[in-house]
Amino acid sequence: MKIAVVGTGYVGLSNALLLARKHQVIALDIVAERVRLLNDRQSPLEDEDVKEALQQADLCFHATLSPAEAYSDAAYVIIATPTDYNPETGRFDTQSIEEVVQAVLGINPSAAIVIKSTVPVGYTRRLSEKLGTDRLIFSPEFLREGMALHDNLYPSRIVVGDTSTKGRVFAQLLSECALRENVEVLLTGSAEAEAIKLFSNTYLAMRVAFFNELDSFAESNALDARQLIRGVGLDPRIGQHYNNPSFGYGGYCLPKDTKQLLANYDQIPSTLIRAVVEANSTRKDFIAQAILKHQPSVVGIYRLTTKADSDNFRDSAIQGVIRRLEAENVEIVIYEPALNLAEFSGYPVIAELAKFKRVSDIIVANRYSTELHDVEGKVYTRDLFGLN
């Protein structure tokens, strides 16, 4: 079966490589360099499983810049284009999805079109009605950054927002290409699937916010946060997972998905979802003030990434902390080996780690690393368990 995948970010590429294990997959992107890398079997992403998969000789995978080449004769077209949150409208920017859908309908109107990009609740139904098509399906992703392909090969569940034959076939495609056996499959309406995605990420954000606020309380009262977290987690209903404090939840998904879910509550009484969104800002305020208590002249920012073993800076929590420190006229320097730049957002980037350590009065690390052991005494982090 020929399958086209539009977009080669974490979602698109992980889906493409999953399905290319058993089907002919063509990935479409608008960036020529990404297409070149993929056709040379090199990964544009920091994901070890993706790098390994691209080296498999039997992988039926090709990348292209041509929509006609990608869409023609494809049984399924998977859309994985960005849907950034627009603060002016309070909604996701879904223009790229609509443009792709219209292009597919113009070239191959018989293809089933699967939206993997995160969208507002009710979007798939509204777009289907607007374009007069019954070919649209929404199927959410549940991926961890840096482990995107792994989480597709060993999925926690497969959710497809379509109960017709095309929805069942797509769910079967994902299940058959996965390495995990007996994956739970849930077929729902499109709006239910859209809501499952937003509520899942908001629950994760809520858990992050909870343990961050616990940590703020512990630090403010000179309590051992590790003991508090372990004691709370001994309740099996809570558990010892996803509980490592941070500077706030960040990355591409959680910040925008929580805000979009809140926007969907505009006519519904709600306090919890708004509190989750606001808690993330409150945590960054707390972290910035805790750093300023050390009265540093130069604050060194160790890594800009959202988590360890990642190359993604999008909406990382530490950037929110940087903006708050800047407002207090603190000098800031950055160490980020993933950047080949002299500065980032106006801040000097120091390429040499030893020099970075030397010039920094305090080193701020959202996630700790063993390469900071020799300057541990001037490292500020709330990474208590050394987890991602």
TrEMBL record:
Keywords attached to this entry: NAD, Oxidoreductase
Pathway(s): Nucleotide-sugar biosynthesis; UDP-alpha-D-glucuronate biosynthesis; UDP-alpha-D-glucuronate from UDP-alpha-D-glucose: step 1/1
Keyword set includes tRNA processing: no
EC number: 1.1.1.22
SUPFAM superfamilies per record: 6-phosphogluconate dehydrogenase C-terminal domain-like, NAD(P)-binding Rossmann-fold domains, UDP-glucose/GDP-mannose dehydrogenase C-terminal domain
Pfam hit, one: UDPG_MGDP_dh_N
Domain UDP-glucose/GDP-mannose dehydrogenase C-terminal: 300-387
Reactions listed under catalytic activity: UDP-alpha-D-glucose + 2 NAD(+) + H2O = UDP-alpha-D-glucuronate + 2 NADH + 3 H(+)
Domain of life: Bacteria
Protein known as: UDP-glucose 6-dehydrogenase
